[in-house]
Design goal:
This protein has two helices and eleven strands, in the order αβββββββββββα. It has a five-stranded antiparallel β-sheet, with helices on one face. A hairpin with a 6-residue loop joins strand 10 and strand 11.
Length: 172
């Protein structure tokens, strides 16, 4: 079994045994063991949104954030576990407020950090550095087909999130 296959299998077992919390703990152990990018990533060359595993129960992705990229405020409509293996991800946390959203906090993740997000969490993510940030993102369910929402960063008007558009912005 390859290192990537073993990783996917251990995450699937963690999901079956204890859901989001167990997945976060298992991802944290892998991040500590790797001490950097996963062994199946030979070189980080540019922005990337790649699916490692996808079925009806879980989606596991490797996301490489280009320098300076920022997302619109958005939700995932499923729980998510984020694990940073290289670089930094800053998050602005939002809450629904009337017809829009309002900021409620911030969170910085650096190499080795994990964070679990609830189904209804809204955040803006940003790579503030001049180098690539690498992260494993694990989502409950088929993330690519789950309807999501985003908010205009200026007007805070809610709209559907089109994943193909969001993913395209990462490709460099």
């Amino acid at each position: 079994m390859s290192a990537q296959e073993d990783f996917v299998e251990q995450i699937k077992i963690a999901h079956a045994d204890g859901g989001c919390d167990r997945v976060r703990d298992t991802l944290a152990k892998f991040l500590a063991d790797w001490g950097g990018p996963p062994p199946w990533i030979s070189q980080m060359e540019g922005g990337e949104f790649s699916v490692i595993h996808r079925d009806d129960a879980l989606t596991i992705m490797n996301i490489i954030w280009p320098p300076g990229i920022i997302t619109e405020p958005h939700n995932h409509n499923c729980w998510a576990v984020i694990g940073i293996y290289q670089g930094r991800e800053d998050n602005l946390l939002w809450a629904r407020h009337g017809d829009g959203i309002k900021p409620i906090g911030a969170l910085t993740l650096t190499a080795g950090d994990t964070h679990a997000m609830a189904c209804d969490d809204i955040h803006t993510a940003f790579n503030p550095s001049q180098s690539l940030t690498g992260a494993i993102h694990i989502y409950e369910g088929d993330f690519l087909t789950t309807p999501k929402r985003e908010w205009d960063p200026v007007t805070h008007e809610e709209r559907p999130r089109i994943m193909a558009d969001a993913m395209e912005r990462f490709e460099t």
